[in-house]
């Protein structure tokens, strides 16, 4: 789902939940709720616009904190992640996490953390609390992080082309609202903000990519990428080119390696961006 489609989907669900939340309320309560909602929407909309003007890492951090505060959360964490072929991924953080809490965020803990593992494999946001940890026998980890204000929160990750990812979470020491519609709106706002912030995050957090010579792809590797772009499998590719499926896979793997990508779909996207296939 691209950014525009996601934004429209989020706003449709947001509007639907707003309508439901107003049904059955007294006029006075409804007016008060509408007033609070309009104030928060104005603040959040300003955050959506402001983050697009960010030029530096420090500015990005301040915008994140302002947005999280308007959303009702004290802690915010944004991470730009870049996967590499044959070596460890890069993680670049911007957050206001207490320094003392960094001791619980070591890599071996993250590999077991249910929130991080969910976001690693899915794009659907996760709403987490103590039960998220105790249900899989990690109650002690929740206790450790709760000391620093991590009682509950919302997290999501956007998985982008070329092995890049954007993780965003907001956390606090108070329970989330009991109103299901209100929680839905919080999730929708975070999703929409992530869509706005992802490009800015990658631009200000990641070092500029050095100018490189175009990869020296063989004719077979180029053909393999072109047919992959058309949706062909390795087996179909082998039949088209008159080679075995194993050889077709080898050509694709070589192309991926030369392009610095971790899968064939990312390789196709990068080849298109570089203009080596059309």
TrEMBL record:
Q: Does the keyword tRNA processing apply?
A: no
Name all HTH luxR-type domain ranges.
Answer: 210-275
Its Gene Ontology molecular function terms?
A: DNA binding
Q: What PROSITE patterns does its record include?
A: HTH_LUXR_2
Q: Which UniProt keywords apply?
A: DNA-binding, Transcription, Transcription regulation
Pfam families, A to Z:
Autoind_bind, GerE
Please, one GO biological process term?
Answer: regulation of DNA-templated transcription
Fetch the InterPro entries from UniProt.
Sig_transdc_resp-reg_C-effctor (IPR016032), TF_LuxR_autoind-bd_dom (IPR005143), TF_LuxR_autoind-bd_dom_sf (IPR036693), Tscrpt_reg_LuxR_C (IPR000792), WH-like_DNA-bd_sf (IPR036388)
UniProt name for this protein: LuxR family transcriptional regulator
Native species? Piscinibacter terrae
């Amino acid at each position: 789902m691209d950014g525009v489609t996601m934004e429209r989907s989020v706003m449709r669900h947001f509007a639907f939940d707003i309508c439901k939340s107003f049904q059955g309320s007294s006029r006075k309560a409804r007016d008060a709720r509408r007033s609070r909602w309009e104030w928060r929407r104005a603040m959040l909309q300003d955050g959506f616009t402001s983050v697009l003007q960010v030029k530096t890492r420090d500015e990005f951090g301040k915008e994140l904190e302002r947005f999280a505060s308007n959303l009702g959360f004290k802690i915010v964490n944004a991470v730009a992640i870049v996967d590499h072929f044959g070596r460890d991924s890069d993680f670049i953080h911007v957050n206001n996490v207490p320094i003392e809490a960094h001791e619980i965020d070591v890599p071996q803990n993250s590999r077991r953390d249910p929130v991080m593992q969910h976001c690693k494999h899915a794009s659907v946001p996760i709403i987490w609390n103590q039960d998220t940890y105790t249900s899989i026998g990690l109650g002690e980890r929740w206790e450790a992080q709760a000391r620093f204000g991590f009682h509950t929160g919302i997290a999501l990750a956007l998985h982008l082309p070329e092995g890049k990812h954007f993780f965003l979470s907001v956390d606090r020491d108070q329970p989330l609202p009991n109103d299901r519609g209100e929680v839905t709106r919080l999730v929708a706002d975070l999703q929409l903000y992530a869509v706005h912030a992802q490009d800015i995050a990658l631009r200000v957090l990641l070092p500029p990519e050095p100018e490189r010579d175009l990869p020296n792809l063989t004719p077979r590797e180029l053909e393999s990428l072109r047919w992959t772009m058309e949706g062909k499998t390795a087996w179909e590719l082998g039949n088209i080119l008159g080679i075995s499926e194993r050889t077709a896979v080898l050509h694709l793997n070589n192309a991926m390696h030369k392009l610095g990508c971790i899968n064939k779909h990312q390789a196709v996207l990068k080849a298109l961006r570089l203009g080596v296939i059309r």
